[in-house]
Design goal:
The chain is mostly beta strands and 361 residues long. Helix content is 6%, strand content 42%.
Length: 361
């Protein structure tokens, strides 16, 4: 009998990719993503020329297939945001980080860069990703993968934890014939619980909170030509839309006035304690984009505040996430300019554009 395979048998796994344009090896150890299997479908250009060849049926020479210019993309999936994996996904969307030692732990600060990384010079964060089947030579694999959009969602009703939702990998290259054999490991399931939020504020005023949602986009698009494939990504515009549900009270009423006069507001949501393992802080500067949606009744209910994050160069960051975990990713100290795999140039950097490509001993 043929192998019977279900979603529960298939693994999604990824690995930091060392060189843009060069996939990681199938035998490498990988990190698993805790979700049901997501499709990584082949993308082809099917061309059926309307050309008369003096016959009354389709001619084989009129039909051709290629993959030129295709963008490969996984199906969207949803995973719990966990302490020792969330930083990968944030880096993959922000494409900018400052990582610093914080005692025995490491703080990662994500903001939007003023200049996007040049992926073809091995800047930024990109991955090799596998849809790993339990049988040989039929696994799907993509590389040069980044993210263009993700949602961070947390509420009392949504299993009471922080989720990464609406997530899909973009990629330049794809194969249906990979044979991954390296070990797939999953980080400990250290989630950020809704009931552990230690700070929820707008304009430094505490909120009676029901839920938050942040939609983060870099609007990645393909750019250039390289051997029939697009050459790299361009990230033309960073955007964050926020939805915050709070109790309709005096704070909500004051926000109604700020919505009408177009005043900027600040927000901050925090888990854990500053400078300690498990700390997560989401903050930003925004303007309310819609009239406050009042959905309250005599018993008291919640209203929805919808905002667009905005900033001013040199003055206010539109959106920032800071997190601390015990893992040094080496994402901020050096980078390597690869001429080829055997010949590289080292340069020191301390800005938030380049990530480390070094091996520390």
């Amino acid at each position: 009998m043929a192998d019977i395979i279900t979603n529960s048998d298939v693994k999604i796994a990824f690995k930091d990719q060392e060189v843009f344009g060069v996939a990681e090896d199938d035998t490498d150890e990988k990190q698993g993503v805790a979700t049901e299997a997501s499709g990584i479908n082949s993308q082809i250009n099917y061309i059926d020329l309307f050309a008369n060849r003096a016959q009354r049926y389709s001619h084989s020479n009129n039909i051709s297939v290629n993959q030129n210019g295709r963008v490969y993309e996984t199906d969207k999936f949803k995973i719990p945001a966990i302490k020792n994996q969330l930083d990968y996904f944030l880096y993959g969307i922000f494409q900018s980080i400052v990582e610093t030692a914080n005692g025995a732990n490491y703080q990662k600060t994500f903001t939007f860069p003023l200049r996007q990384p040049d992926f073809t010079s091995h800047e930024g964060k990109y991955f090799t990703v596998w849809l790993q089947q339990p049988v040989s030579d039929v696994s799907q694999k993509i590389n040069d993968s980044i993210f263009s959009e993700l949602d961070l969602i947390c509420s009392a009703e949504n299993d009471g934890i922080l989720w990464i939702d609406g997530l899909s990998y973009l990629a330049r290259n794809h194969t249906d014939l990979a044979n991954p054999s390296g070990t797939v490991t999953y980080p400990d399931q250290d989630e950020f619980n809704y009931y552990d939020i230690s700070k929820a504020q707008i304009d430094s005023t505490d909120l009676v909170l029901n839920g938050i949602k942040f939609t983060i986009r870099n609007n990645a698009k393909r750019l250039g030509i390289d051997s029939g494939k697009f050459k790299t990504y361009i990230l033309p515009r960073y955007e964050v839309e926020a939805e915050i549900q709070i109790l309709y009270d005096s704070t909500a009423q004051s926000l109604m006035a700020k919505a009408k006069n177009g005043s900027s507001i600040t927000f901050e949501f925090q888990w854990g304690t500053v400078n300690t393992d498990g700390y997560l802080n989401i903050s930003g500067n925004a303007k309310i984009s819609q009239a406050v949606n009042i959905e309250h009744d005599q018993g008291g209910n919640y209203c929805t505040i919808r905002m667009l994050c905005v900033g001013e160069y040199g003055l206010t960051e539109p959106f920032q996430i800071v997190m601390i975990n015990p893992t040094n990713r080496y994402w901020n100290y050096h980078y390597m300019i690869f001429k080829d795999r055997a010949d590289c140039i080292w340069q020191d950097r301390t800005d938030n554009i380049f990530q480390d490509r070094s091996i520390y001993v």
